[in-house]
């Protein structure tokens, strides 16, 4: 379930059930307090999960192993983390210049295009000119 809709569900579901089943104001207040508590727990989980993901990505991107880099780059494709843009470009440049790990290069190029990382444009233009003689 999408974060936005999950938050709406956590907020509105208890309120609607409280409205339908309401006998007195205490019941509604209890349901509202539970709904707010659930949203707080959900948001805390999301923040902790994102923090853990960032720490894992930093470890994987610091590695020189192609398998670790691939794993990190695939996670970056699924989730948008703009703070890793320069790192992705640096990895691509290093791998391209050393002519190693074409899989890593492909995944990095996908992220560069998806996130519109203009830092990589000079190298990409150089590659196109070299390949097509433009």
What does this structure look like?
By secondary structure, the chain is mainly alpha-helical. The chain has six helices and no strands. It has helices spanning 3-21, 25-62, 66-78, 85-98, 102-115, 121-132. It is elongated.
Helical residues, percent: over 70%
What is Rg?
23 Å
Give the tally of β-strands: 0
The average pLDDT is 77
Structural class: mainly alpha
Molecular shape: elongated
What low-confidence regions span 5 or more consecutive residues with pLDDT below 50? Answer: 15-22
**Number of helical regions:** 6
Strand content: under 5%
Head-to-tail CA distance between termini: 47 Å
Secondary-structure element order, N to C: HHHHHH
Task: Characterize the biggest β-sheet.
Answer: none
Topology overview:
Blueprint: H1 3-21, H2 25-62, H3 66-78, H4 85-98, H5 102-115, H6 121-132
Helix pairs in contact: 1-2, 2-3, 3-5, 4-5
């Amino acid at each position: 379930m999408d974060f936005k809709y999950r938050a709406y569900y956590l907020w509105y579901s208890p309120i609607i059930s409280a409205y339908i089943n309401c006998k007195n104001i205490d019941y509604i207040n209890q349901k509202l307090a539970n709904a707010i508590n659930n949203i707080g727990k959900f948001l805390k989980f999301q923040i902790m999960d994102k923090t853990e993901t960032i720490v894992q990505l930093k470890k994987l991107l610091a590695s020189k192993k192609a398998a670790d880099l691939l794993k990190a780059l695939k996670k970056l494709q699924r989730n948008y983390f703009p703070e890793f843009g320069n790192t992705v470009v640096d990895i691509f440049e290093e791998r391209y210049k050393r002519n190693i790990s074409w899989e890593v290069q492909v995944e990095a190029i996908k992220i560069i295009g998806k996130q519109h990382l203009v830092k990589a444009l000079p190298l990409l233009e150089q590659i196109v000119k070299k390949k097509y003689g433009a």
